[in-house]
Amino acid sequence: MFTPYMIGQALISGILMGITYGLMGAGFNLIYGVLRIVNLAHGDFLMLAAFAAYWLNVFWGLDPLSSLPLTLPLFFLLGLLLYYLVVPKIRQAEDPETTSFLAFFGISLALSTGAFIAWGATPRGIPNPYPITSLSIGGFFFPIGRLIGAGVSLLVALLFLYLLYYTYTGKALRALIDNSNAAQILGINIHRLSAIAFALGITLIAVVGTITPLMFPGILPSMGFPFTIISIVVIVLGGLGNPIGAIVGGIIFGLALNLAGLFLSLSLAPAISFAVLILMIMWRPEGLFQR
Asked: Given Cys at both, which of 66, 240, 241, 277 links 291, Cβ 3.0 to 4.6 Å?
């Protein structure tokens, strides 16, 4: 028997996690929209950022929030480096989209395997660095880790949307998403902006990765692939090339996942991501918010 309290608690958890999923999807969507690259290593960068937060805590005693000023510039530079090493070669291929799919699948395997060799398969975690573990409001509990994660994700998402809609660079990025050939004719440096878009997409997922130890009990080298799948589901829900749609899609998916965990067994709940993906592709492949 499910009480209104249980359903309300599931909705709260779904919204909190959904905001974070939305930021993950926004980074994936930006890379795909500008470069037409399916970044299958997206979740693996989240895994690397989670381990970066873990080791910063071990060696310097930094909590995940204090780690953000260190991890974000690092992953932005990593994104730029990876772009200039890999993407120009992909664009010279006869079939760039298929080549990018295979290349980033290989990068995903390399990152997860390298992390497994370096750190093993034992789950690692950061003890709660805050004096409380949850807040109680109106009889509902808000886990402090997920509350902070959702707050950081929402703040970063709002800054990202401000960049896209109220700055010259953001407008140029949206022009590339809409029509890269026309943007190039108008004088936009598509190569420089593509590098910025790729690095920014990696930075957004690094935000989620850095705060992941606050939201999940353990981090593993194999945790990247499920988050890549979630990012794909989120952008399919929200619509390809639609940054706002990705954030809304993340909230919808978070609600669906938590409600499924309430009404179904915990072992079946993860399958909801594949079910949502298949149903969405069959029913509305352009997404809920068509660009």
From this structure: 241
Condensed to tens digits (0 to 9), the pLDDT of residues 191-202 reads 899 999 999 999
Beta bridge partners of 137: 140
* Contact call for residues 138 and 208 (beta carbons, < 8 A): no
81-243-39-168 Cα dihedral, nearest 10 degrees:
-30
Give the contacts of 185 (CB within 8 A, at least 6 positions apart). none
pLDDT for 206: 96
Q: Cα(199)–Cα(41) distance, rounded to whole angstroms?
A: 13
Q: How far apart are CA 188 and CA 209, in angstroms?
A: 32
Structure tokens at 252: 């919808």
Phi, psi (degrees; rounded to nearest 5) at 143: -55, 130
User: Tell me: the pLDDT tens digits for 72-118?
Assistant: 999 999 999 999 999 988 888 878 788 888 899 999 999 999 999 99
Q: What CATH number should be reported for the domain whose range is 4-120+141-283?
A: 1.10.3470
Give percent helix, percent strand, percent coil of the chain, each to the nearest 5: 75, 5, 20
Q: Are 259 and 77 in contact (CB under 8 A)?
A: no
Residue 241's pLDDT is 67
